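Thread: "does anyone have the structure for this chain?"

Original post by V.I.:
We have the sequence but no experimental structure in hand. Need at least a predicted one for the grant figures.
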Amino acid sequence: MRIIDLQDKQGGVDISLKIIWDQAKPEERFGKKIKSVLVADAESKQGDPTAYLDLTNEDIEKYKQFDKIKVTNAYTKLRHNGQFWITNAEQIEKIEEE
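Reply from O.Q.:
Generated one for you, tokens below.
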């Protein structure tokens, strides 16, 4: 799946992404630490669609800018500005470069 294929209020999303911006400060929300990072498709080029991804708790320190990651079983929301938000991921893991 790619960012361009996302739908509003879609569950069960599996997608490969790269973190392109991670300078936000973590916030305490819903009883956990959450940091929102800007992501693009793992193989994207400049100008391709982007989305926000919520990293929680230990994932905040584990993943950094330019990391490629695989997000499993997440939920998406379309924000009022047309930007997608990917949240509540069941699992996030780093994609190792070959």
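V.I.: this helps a lot. The chain is about 5% helix and 50% strand.
O.Q.: and The longest helix spans residues 59-62.
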